[in-house]
Give the backbone structure.
Amino acid sequence: MAVKMSQGLKQTQNLAMTPQLQQAIKLLTLTHLEMTNVIAEEMVENPMLEEAGGEGEVEVDAAADENREATTEDFQEAPILKEKDDFDWDSYADSFNSNSSAPNMATPSSDPDEMPTYENIVSKSMTLAEHLEWQLKMENLSDDEWKLAHLIIGNINDDGYLEVNFEDLIAESGLKREDAFDVLEMVQRLDPVGCGAQNLQDCLLAQARIAEERSPLLERIIRDHLEDLQGKNYEKIAKTLGVNSDQVKKTALLLQNFHPKPGRLVAAPDTHYILPDIFVVEVGGEFVVQVNDEGIPRLKISKLYQEMIKRGAGHKNDEASEFVKEKLRSAEWLIKSIQNRQKTIEKVSKAIVSKQQEFFKKGPKYLKPMVLKDVANDIGMHESTVSRVTTNKYMHTPIGTFELKYFFNTGIGGKDGGADIASEVLKMKIKAIFEAENPAKPLSDQKVVEILAKENLTVARRTVTKYREMLGVLPSSKRKEKN
């Protein structure tokens, strides 16, 4: 009996990601420093690779001399200090919520050259935990107290805050509650004061208690009216505490001497150094792109191993010959991948500079809307390639250093529906509007929409709200001074 079988056939195409192709893609995403490290590792593992340098040798990039690192200048701005007649909680809270090492509330000294007092200088050679434990050694603690103190210090983060529930540490220590809190208070009194607190309120209270001029009023404000202070509701605080609003404002100014992140005085954030991949320099009124080849060796294939391949050409089954051939293919691919990476970065950078001339001439306010597709079409490459090239790559320009991704912004705000302004520029405009507002009559999001409309920028209220939140600006109801 014959059985009839039908079978559906489907033809598909798949892109085989060879190790060489994976390597080429990986090189595109690496930073300049990572790139040099990869090359150094490959030169150790692959005997085929040698650094070119002698006369008559064929080098990786014939145009390497054209892409030397440009000399750069330090761009420094003088700090801008603003004097206010009352406590600016927004700036202080911003310090608490950011990664800064100290509040942005420092009162300008009458003598700009005056050095901080010795008591305010904390050794940077120790970690925060080591610094706290060093001070505890001067205290007469029992074994159980030492155990709890180490538990507390071991659970303090870089900002100086206790990251675990203190009740759990009490249970682990075996101490009585009141004895445990004595140990906690002892840790919080160590330098920098306030470390070991579980929240901002406890941190500020710890600093208020050891202040040179202790203020019971300030402690009450911190303990019972921190939210009212945030909302600038001075009249409510004054009424509750039985004082006048001016006295509340004057007392709140004492917070300028406190640190919302005391741990950062010792455990400063790690410094990340940026090595630009591209330099943009102005030459004869035009902006020229120079790819940074500093530290990237110019490679060549070892002549010694080339001779070995020639001698072993007739021994196809010879394992040594096959090993050398494989290393040769790997070396050639690496050299081509490096060339491709540098040329692709150069193409993308030139396209960015070409499209953002106003930015380089006049500054960030003149950044134009630009998406990956714009550059991809300009240089004849896929958007994914442009995306990889712009990842972790930095461009040093006459007006500062920028990540390549910074230049890509969607367009927002055109009255006719067009892309008239880059999203980053819109954010700057919104920030400027809030900074210029009258503190007694803060602007609502809708009012900001109306102000932008006068500049022919049609922006939805939810867009303003989104950027306001990104900028860390509170709603108008919380920015208004109630006095």
Notes: Residues 1-10, 12-16, 54-84, 97-124 have pLDDT under 50 and may be disordered. Residues 19-70+274-407 form one domain.
